[in-house]
């Protein structure tokens, strides 16, 4: 089968950083589905792994953790899916990724693709949807409510809101909660993007945040979704959060002085969507369930794909371009590729 892989951690400008290769087609056993990959999306985790995790066995490493495809084979223990189903998923960080024609994925991590959008549009959703859902409802514990008459007593600040996770998190918060959403953006294009997705207010993260938040006059923050540069904003979070407020982050700050959280009894939550698959937790199936919920929300028109750009076919050249754009930190929404 065709695949894209690497043997060394090299700068993305090096042609060998990602290479077109041929690998043996895997076989499904146990709870695994064998998926014929139709479309993929690229995430920051892809370039972080490529930069920092070179294979040590002399073989090629195949990455990629967002895909849409067709089930072409099922293991003996599979009960949730059938051959011919079109599915979407983010997979398992410890297994071969989606940058290949065929991929094995545990059925518990898989959901049915939304029927009313294209494969490429659906590929933009799994990883960020799982991350945003777990952050909002499991870690930050924001209340799910649908009645528009309910009082808005929760105020969430979403930092780095125009990226992949922020783009779906804003929509989930808008549609499933009554929280007031403050998004950060610094460019006209990203400001318009997050506004269109449902942000109630937008503040400029290239300027001090506290004066802008206070000028909104909507009361203190109750929650923060910190999607990048947590180290630069932690003091602002402490200042602006109400006592017993919650901070959730997905980035990797080198150091945070958590003693600053003590006086207000603030809580800090790391969201890492691969914890369940990495440690084979008893509730792994929750990721499959929430992907099915997201699929229904898409089909009902409550949320939409967060695709930002389609770079064409799945090959090394186009994947290198995707990695390079993500590494620049300037992308809006998700970068996808489709077809081999």
What is the topological layout?
Blueprint: E1 2-5, E2 19-22, E3 32-42, H1 44-52, E4 67-74, E5 86-89, E6 102-106, E7 110-112, H2 119-123, H3 126-139, E8 155-159, H4 164-176, E9 180-184, H5 188-197, E10 201-203, H6 209-216, E11 221-226, H7 230-240, E12 241-249, E13 267-270, H8 275-278, H9 285-299, E14 307-310, H10 316-328, E15 334-338
Parallel strand pairs: 8-9, 8-11, 9-10, 11-12, 12-13, 14-15
Antiparallel strand pairs: 1-2, 3-4, 3-6, 3-15, 4-5, 5-7
Helix pairs in contact: 3-4, 3-9, 6-7
How does this structure look, described?
The protein has 340 residues and is of the alpha/beta class. It folds into two domains: 2-125 and 283-338, Quinone Oxidoreductase, Chain A, domain 1 (Alpha-Beta Complex), CATH 3.90.180.10; 129-270, Rossmann fold (3-Layer(aba) Sandwich). Helix content is 30%, strand content 24%. The chain has helices at 44-52, 119-123, 126-139, 164-176, 188-197, 209-216, 230-240, 275-278, 285-299, 316-328, and strands at 2-5, 19-22, 32-42, 67-74, 86-89, 102-106, 110-112, 155-159, 180-184, 201-203, 221-226, 241-249, 267-270, 307-310, 334-338. Strands 3, 4, 5, 6, 7, 14 and 15 form a seven-stranded mixed beta sheet that branches. The longest helix is centred in the C-terminal third of the chain and has 15 residues, at 285-299. The chain is globular, with a radius of gyration of 20 Å. The model has no long low-confidence stretch (mean pLDDT 94).
């Amino acid at each position: 089968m065709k695949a894209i892989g690497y043997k060394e951690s090299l700068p993305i400008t090096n042609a060998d950083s990602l290479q077109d290769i041929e690998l043996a087609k895997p076989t499904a056993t146990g709870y695994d589905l064998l998926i014929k990959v139709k479309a993929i999306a690229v995430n920051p985790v892809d370039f972080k792994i490529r930069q920092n995790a070179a294979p040590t066995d002399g073989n090629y490493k195949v990455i990629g953790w967002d895909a849409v495809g067709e089930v072409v084979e099922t293991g003996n223990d599979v009960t949730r899916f059938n051959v011919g189903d079109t599915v979407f998923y983010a997979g398992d960080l410890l297994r071969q990724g989606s940058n290949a024609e065929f991929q094995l994925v545990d059925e518990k991590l898989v959901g049915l693709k939304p029927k009313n959008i294209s494969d490429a549009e659906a590929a933009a959703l799994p990883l960020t949807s799982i991350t945003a859902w777990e952050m909002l409802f499991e870690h930050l514990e924001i209340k799910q409510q649908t009645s528009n008459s309910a009082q808005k007593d929760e105020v969430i600040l979403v930092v780095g809101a125009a990226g992949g996770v922020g783009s779906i998190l804003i929509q989930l918060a808008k549609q499933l909660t009554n929280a007031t959403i403050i998004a950060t953006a610094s460019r006209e294009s990203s400001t318009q993007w997050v506004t269109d997705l449902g942000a109630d207010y937008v503040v400029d993260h290239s300027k001090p945040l506290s004066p802008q938040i206070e000028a909104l006059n909507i009361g203190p923050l109750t929650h923060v979704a910190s999607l990048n540069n947590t180290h630069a904003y932690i003091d602002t979070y402490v200042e602006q959060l109400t006592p017993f407020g919650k901070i959730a982050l997905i980035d990797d700050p080198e150091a945070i002085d958590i003693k600053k959280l003590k006086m207000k009894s603030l809580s800090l939550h790391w969201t890492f969507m691969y914890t369940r698959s990495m440690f084979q937790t008893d509730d792994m199936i929750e990721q499959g369930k929430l992907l099915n919920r997201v699929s229904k929300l898409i089909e009902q028109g409550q949320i939409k794909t967060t695709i930002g750009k389609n770079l064409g076919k799945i090959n090394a050249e186009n994947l290198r371009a995707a990695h390079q754009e993500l590494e620049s930190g300037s992308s809006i929404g998700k970068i996808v590729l489709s077809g081999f």
